[in-house]
Design goal:
10 strands; alpha/beta; globular; 11 helices; 298 residues
Length: 298
């Protein structure tokens, strides 16, 4: 992957399997917080975040440092971007510093693809608008495979604000490559037609019935222009409660990319439930991003 990682859609199944397998090798390092490798010693990674992010940015920083690389993080709010500098000028400035990879999050769909056509530096997409979030889908797959032998034939319910969710898009692309059965559930206004070609849209109780994996999504109020549901109203129709879990498989797991809104997308009881793997997803984010950085730069 010398060109970086722009999305799941363009990756083949073999490349995805290689990243997931390598991430598994890195998992034991999680419990050895001081253990560092020298795989990427002397390499420099720039994290360029035009949108607020705690989990993803920190995860990439830790991943880079665990591999022995130097990581420099730039957030748009504290950079020349706020002074009116264009995207291309910012990137040309960064390219002149000769980083080995740029990890980028941007509110515009396609921004990393645009830059990859203008820069020789590999770009890793850390989320672009409503388009894709490839490393989230990879860490979600790694989390599922920690508990299941295969993704093949699994029934995965993705529930919530699907229209605005780059996480949903990347997961649909990844899971469909592995033969999972995907069902989508959310308010009609938040179900995009193009994804319904890849996955069926159904009601909440039907989506959860016999599910192996229940993937809840954050309601992205910052991307919604129309009047949003009230938290109470949304929770009433689309919030996940403990009693819903009786409809799923007995060993079904509950996922959420975070940050979670308790009482809107899921109840506190579900968030803290023994089969909730939300914190495992955060942990796996580091191992997966180590595998991606090694593959892109190493």
């Amino acid at each position: 992957m010398p060109d970086g990682l722009l999305g799941i859609e363009e990756l083949n199944r073999g490349s995805i399997e290689a990243i997931l397998s390598r991430a598994k090798d890195f998992q034991p390092l999680q419990s050895q917080s001081l253990k560092k490798l020298d795989t990427l010693r002397g390499k420099m990674i720039v994290n360029l975040f035009y949108e607020a992010s705690t989990r993803t940015r920190t995860s990439f920083e830790i991943a880079a440092k665990r591999l022995g690389a130097d990581a420099v993080s730039i957030t748009a709010s504290g950079s020349s971007v706020t002074k009116g500098e264009s995207l291309v000028d910012t990137l040309n400035t960064l390219a002149a510093m000769r980083p080995d990879a740029i990890v980028m999050r941007h509110a515009a769909s396609g921004a990393p693809h645009f830059l990859s056509r203008h820069l020789p530096t590999p770009i890793i997409n850390a989320g672009d608008g409503m388009h894709e979030h490839p490393t989230q889908a990879l860490l979600d797959a790694r989390t599922i495979l920690d508990r299941r032998s295969t993704l093949e034939g699994l029934r995965v319910a993705i529930i919530g604000d699907i229209a605005h969710s780059r996480v949903a898009r990347s997961n649909v692309h990844l899971l469909s490559k592995f033969g999972s059965e995907i069902v989508l559930c959310g308010p009609a206004s938040l179900l995009p037609r193009e994804l319904e070609q890849l996955a069926a849209g159904v009601r909440l109780t039907k989506a959860i019935r016999d599910a192996d994996v229940i993937m809840m999504l954050r309601v992205q109020l910052e991307r919604q222009h129309e009047a949003a549901f009230s938290a109470l109203e949304y929770f009433q129709f689309y919030g996940l409660r403990v009693e819903h879990l009786d409809l799923a498989k007995p060993d079904a797991i509950v996922m959420h990319p975070g940050p979670i809104n308790r009482g809107r997308e899921l109840s506190s009881e579900v968030a803290d439930f023994q089969r909730s793997v939300i914190l495992n997803q955060v942990e796996n984010g580091i191992a997966v991003r180590m595998a991606v950085l090694e593959r892109v730069i190493g």
